[in-house]
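User: For my dataset I need records formatted as: sequence, then C-alpha cells, nothing else. Please produce one.
Assistant:
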Amino acid sequence: MTSDTAEPAAAGFGFGPYQVGPEVQAGLVQLAGRGPKAVQYTEVDGQAVFEGDIILDLIESKQIAGDQAVALLESGVLIPGQQFRWPSGLVPYEIDAALPDQSRVTGAIDHWQRNTRIRFVRRTAQNQGQYPDFIRFVPGSGCSSAVGLRGNVQQITLGSGCELGAAIHEIGHATGLWHEQSREDRDQFVTINWANIQQGMAHNFNQHITDGDDVGAYDYHSIMHYPRWAFSNNGQDTIVPRQTVETGQRQGLSPGDCLAVRTMYASLESPARFSGVQFTGQVAAGQVGRWFTHSWPAHWYVHWTVVPTGPVADGDAQIESWVQVTRQSGGLLKYFVNVRNLTGGPVDIQARYDVLGWGANAT
C-alpha cells in the first residue's frame, strides 16, 4: 500500500488516496440560516466528493454555471452548531465485513481515544436501536468522509491505499474537521502554485467550505493539511508554505488538531492551562540561534512566543522567530525554537510558552 505523504502519485484522477471523478460538476449545498450555496465537485463511486475526500450532501442536482459557483464561494461557509456534533462525543460505528485490513480502523480509533475525549462504540444487533446515527467503514475508491454528524448511516470509505494515518484523517472529517488549508487565512501562510495543479483539479483549491471557526494559529503540522504536492501534474509543489516547514503528515493528530476537537466538544473536559518561561539566551548580530525544548505530550497545545529583553530599541524589529517540531516515541513532541537577530549587535531573548493541556487517557 502507499502513503499519502511518501511521494507524488502519477498523473491521473487525484493523488495518493484522494480521488476525483473525470468531470467537474456544480451543485448546491444547504447552509443553516443562510440558504443554498453553489459548490464544485466531482463524482466518485456515485457520491459528490469535494477536495478529494469530503462527501457533500447536495440539495439540488441540476447543473449551474461553473463561474457562478466560484463567485458564490468567495464569501466562505459556516457550519454552525451542535447538529453537526456527535452527542456527548460518542461515535457509534460499524466495519463492513468486506473491508480489508480492519486494523487500520481499530488503530485509528485507538489513536483518537488516546489523544482526545471522543469515544467510539461498536454498533451491534443488540444495541442498534440505541444508536440510529453511526459511521460505517466501507471499501471503495480512495478515502472519503462527510464532515460532522449527518444523521442515520454515513460512510467512511477506505480504499487500498488508505493506511492508518488516512483513517485518522477521515475520522477527523467525521467529527467535524475540514482541511487545514481551507481556513479563511490560508493565503497568509501558504502559496498555491496553480500552474502545477493537474488539469481540472484546481477546484480542490479555490473553494472554501469551512466550519468558519478557525481555531488557534494556522497549523502546518495538522493531519488535516494537504501535502505540498497535492494534485500535482509534474511532481512539483502545489502548496508552498511561507515558512520552512513540511505539511501533510499522516502520523497522528497534531496539538492544533486536538485543540480544534476540544473546541468543538468543549463540554467533555475542563482544560488545564499554564504558562511560563522555557529559556533565556543571546543571539549574536546577524546570526540565528536555535534552542530545543523539553518534550511535551503530543496531545497538548503549546504556543511559543519569543521576545527581546535587551537592549532597548525604539525602532525596527530586533528579532524574528519560528518553531519546528519533531514527533518522538512515547506520544511526545520536541519543539525547536529558532531566533534570527535582525540588528547589528547582540540581542538577549526570552522564550515563553502557553500550554493548553488535558488528560490523554481519561474515560
